[in-house]
From TrEMBL:
Family: Belongs to the class-I pyridine nucleotide-disulfide oxidoreductase family.
Record keywords, A-Z: Disulfide bond, FAD, Flavoprotein, NAD, Nucleotide-binding, Oxidoreductase, Redox-active center
Catalyzed chemical reaction(s): N(6)-[(R)-dihydrolipoyl]-L-lysyl-[protein] + NAD(+) = N(6)-[(R)-lipoyl]-L-lysyl-[protein] + NADH + H(+)
Lineage: Bacteria, Pseudomonadati, Pseudomonadota, Alphaproteobacteria, Sphingomonadales
Full protein name: Dihydrolipoyl dehydrogenase
Length: 465
């Protein structure tokens, strides 16, 4: 009966959700194909997202260290530092090529068939991909997301760009106006500020980084301002006009008030992302959407149509690569009759600026809305390694249930926050109390000791503050 289908599993989209689902399905013995319309595998993340943005963040950080005079106090002096932006882009492109090529290798190794072209449903088990029709018993929708357009602001990828354009600017802008004080705006704004641009971030809400812990949002804003970024919060963009290679950005207070005009030579639109469903012809299969236009799923990633599943950015939840990857493993295991589960309460978020900003679990505000909490904080100013490295920006904050002491959320602002948050996620996954963390031996001298000290602070007894 199953042999009547060309494949056991067809995955649509080869981003972190789709390529991982395809590999795990093949590992579980299922005949698997993956449709991808891009020239290379890896989706948004590897091609125009996580990877190229981290390449530029790393390179621009090195440039800022070299030019900012920070190294002289460590006795490292040099002259003649200059920027070769073409080389910076070339090294970024090389990393992207190596990693997307790596996925192609993994597909071959695991015998996943790559169907090149755009996929569109014909019915619940039949999909057209690049002119060819294939059938599959189970189909996973993993088509990802793309930038949310701002009405009245046309993206030309020259003067007005989205994140893809902002990853490829051929020269450093004099004045970059970023619309949206979220993750993309702050990461890519930081890249171009470090390379010499004046950067103004226009954020509609009264604070950057919605969804993050309140204190973390405030501290981050303070640090970005100290670095020279202009943050216009509580401000909306009412229009952008482009003339030649210059733009005029009209802004006014979100609450109403006097308008002003920002002159810029580059404008980045980064106000969020929306699920990719256009052209998929979901109607032909009868797949239902949520109110917000995502593909609706249950706890097991099943849509309303038997045999059709959805994961990653196209489905509800955080739009993060590791969330998509974990859902990719889980959906393949569910299709194979196993029990695939993702704990959506413990998904870390990281902003890869300097310092990095990371969190997992609940913010203090969200935790308080659910019950009584205890909070412990420890500043890197009091951490010996951070002090020694002259790297004292930030803090660790742990939020625990006041009655059970169970850890509900951990927030870290630090140069190493993205790496350190894994320890917090693991502790929470294991149901740790703050006492469990406080009595775990941490190596000295490390930034990680600040996590232990923040846990000790939840108990009211930190040693070093
Ligand atoms: P995607 O990666 O979007 O992949 C979907 C794929 O499906 C695409 O390749 C697309 O071409 C293909 N596709 C769509 N429709 C069809 C069709 N009809 N037929 C065939 N193929 C189709 N997340 C992090 O966790 N960490 C980061 O540091 C990070 N940095 C980011 C930086 C930027 C600038 C951006 C834009 C995003 C970043 N993200 C980051 C988010 C991350 O990229 C996404 O959460 C992740 O890529 C989602 O994976 P996905 O598999 O759901 O979809
Ligand atoms: P975002 O949701 O993080 O931030 C968008 C910001 O724009 C919000 O602060 C919002 O209040 C603001 N905004 C919305 N409309 C506005 C308007 N009209 N004018 C001014 N401000 C407005 O979205 P962003 O930065 O575009 O990123 C998209 C997704 O990509 C995110 O969901 C994020 O998870 C993912 N991503 C993750 C990264 C990471 O994990 N390091 C890096 C980059 C992106």
């Amino acid at each position: 009966d199953e042999q009547q289908y060309d494949y056991d599993v067809l995955v649509i989209g080869a981003g972190p959700g789709g390529y991982v689902a395809a590999i795990r399905a093949a590992q579980l013995g299922l005949r698997t194909a993956c449709a991808e319309s891009r020239e290379t595998l890896g989706g948004t993340c590897l091609n125009v997202g996580c990877i190229p943005s981290k390449a530029l963040l790393h390179a621009s950080e090195l440039y800022e260290e070299a030019t900012g005079g920070h190294l002289a106090k460590f006795g490292v002096n040099f002259q003649g530092v200059s920027l070769d932006l073409d080389q910076m882009h070339a090294e970024k492109a090389k990393a992207v090529k190596e990693l997307t090529g790596g996925i192609e290798f993994l597909f071959k190794k695991n015998k996943v068939t790559w169907l090149k072209g755009r996929a569109a449903f014909q019915d619940a088990h039949r999909v057209e991909v690049g002119g060819q029709v294939v059938t599959a018993k189970d189909i996973v929708i993993a088509t990802g997301s793309s930038v949310t357009p701002l009405p009245g602001v046309a993206i030309d990828q020259k003067v007005v760009v989205d994140s893809t354009g902002a990853l490829a600017l051929p020269k450093v802008p004099e004045h970059l106006v970023v619309i949206g004080g979220g993750v993309i705006g702050l990461e890519l704004g930081s890249v171009w500020r470090r390379l010499g641009a004046k950067v103004t971030v226009v954020e509609y809400l009264d604070q950057i980084l919605p969804g993050f812990d309140g204190e973390v949002r405030k501290e981050s804003a303070k640090l970005f301002k100290k670095q020279g970024m202009d943050l216009l919060t509580g401000t909306k963009v009412t229009g952008v006009t482009v003339e030649g290679d210059r733009a005029q950005v009209q802004v006014e207070p979100a609450a109403g008030g006097e308008a002003q005009v920002l002159a810029a030579d580059a404008v980045l639109v980064a106000i969020g992302r929306k699920p990719n469903i256009d052209g998929l012809n979901l109607e032909a299969a009868g797949v239902a959407l949520t109110e917000r236009g995502q593909v609706g799923i249950d706890h097991d990633f099943r849509t309303n149509v038997p045999g059709i599943w959805a994961i990653g950015d196209v489905a509800p939840g955080l739009m993060l690569a590791h969330k998509a990857e974990d859902e990719g493993v889980a959906v393949a295991e569910n299709i194979a009759g196993q029990t695939g589960i993702v704990n959506h309460d413990v998904i870390p978020s990281v902003v890869y600026t300097m310092p990095e900003i990371a969190g997992v679990g609940l913010s203090e505000e969200a935790a308080k809305a659910k019950g009584e909490v205890k909070v412990g904080k420890f500043p890197f100013m009091a951490n010996s390694r951070a002090k020694t490295n002259r790297d004292t920006d930030g803090f660790v904050k742990i939020i625990a249930d006041a009655n059970t002491d169970r850890v509900l959320g951990v927030w870290i602002v630090s140069s190493l926050a993205g790496t350190m948050i894994a320890q917090a996620a693991q502790a929470m996954e294991f149901g740790a109390t703050s006492e469990d963390i406080a009595y775990t031996c941490h190596a000295h001298p490390t930034h990680s000791e600040a996590v232990k000290e923040a846990a000790m602070a939840v108990q009211g007894k930190p040693i070093h503050i």
